[in-house]
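tl;dr need the bound structure. longer version: we got a ligand (guanosine-5'-triphosphate) that a collaborator sent over and nobodys looked at where it sits. i said id run it. heres the input, straight from their email, havent touched it
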Amino acid sequence: MAFSWFKKSKQLNSPNIDDTPVSDSFDNSDEPGALHEEKNQEPEVPDTSPATKDTTDNSSNGMFNRLRNRLTRTRKGLTSGLETIFSGRKQLDEELLEELEELLITSDIGVKTSMDLIQHISGKASKISDPQKLKTILKDEITQLLSLPSHQAIPSPALEPDAPRPFVMLVLGVNGVGKTTTIGKLAARYHDAGKRVLIAAADTFRAAAGDQLQIWSGRANAEIVRHKDNADPAAVTYDAVSAAKARGVDIVLIDTAGRIHTKTNLMEELKKIKRTVTKIIPDAPHETLLVLDATTGQNALSQTRMFHEAVGVTGIALTKLDGTAKGGIVIGICAEMNIPLRYIGIGEQVEDLQEFHPADFTDALF
Ligand SMILES: Nc1nc2c(ncn2[C@@H]2O[C@H](COP(=O)(O)OP(=O)(O)OP(=O)(O)O)[C@@H](O)[C@H]2O)c(=O)[nH]1
Ligand SMILES: [Mg+2]
């Protein structure tokens, strides 16, 4: 069924994805409650769930419950939005599709991906007579979108049986996105998997950064290589990777600054760190992990393009999905970037980093 809606020339660049300036600070302005009416909500995961009690249940059920719980804001935004736009209507017409597209864009799925989804849904319009049916079809479409072979990447290459040793992971991202926290969580995960982990404190810009990392390394039983504040990050990297090689460490995690003293460009600094790693281990870094903050919405896409162009990103970790109604950014990243989303951050605790599994994510979202 063709809707004239599709013939309308839409502004693909509005909001402007490519030209969005990269935020130098972390945008905390997301107020999910204000985005959508919160009527007709689904029942929440009961308060007795492990996530609510903040105890750790790492069974697959426990992890799924925690994921579902932490995605509550995004889920409520989507489901109550679907109810609202369907209220008083009996069928999926052009106007409803426009409102649906707006809802998807508000959830930060992205303009292009939202339009693609709407196009598919409009083809099934005759089958959609109530919000529940619409929800099912939207879920199917998103599942299909995330099921493309390009999104079925290995979630944790460092834990693959044939992973290089030491496996060197360079962690990047603008300031405040959650790099250090993600490194701490990864270090704990790798330690629990029986790996010997070393952290390089190559963020020498912020005085407290090394201390923060020291605390995380203590929690995760990881070794740490640290120099004085304002030391050369490449020198820290050199010492850390050399030590890892000499000591037979399995995994090296390099924490970098999101912001540096003005004279040197951040990207130039990162390139230098990368060259230093390569000097010691020619095929390293084996992973260049970009950390993105989900609450910054579409800005995350422009950050990805910027870092990828400069240093070549091989994997993404998307943090703070618990703090936003805009969790649709996961779908936007998967659909628009050809870089695997490996981890999602759903809280500040060590167990709040999960490998990204598209099917679980979609189930938790609806
Ligand atoms: N709610 C929530 N908070 C998170 C998550 N990941 C990180 N944070 C918080 O975000 C804040 C910034 O995290 P950091 O790890 O210090 O970020 P960073 O990128 O290392 O910051 P800089 O070193 O200043 O560039 C901290 O308060 C973290 O606890 C997450 O998944 N959910
Ligand atoms: Mg940091």
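gonna send this back to them w/ a short note. Strands lie at 167-172, 197-202, 223-225, 251-256, 287-293, 315-319, 341-345, 353-355.
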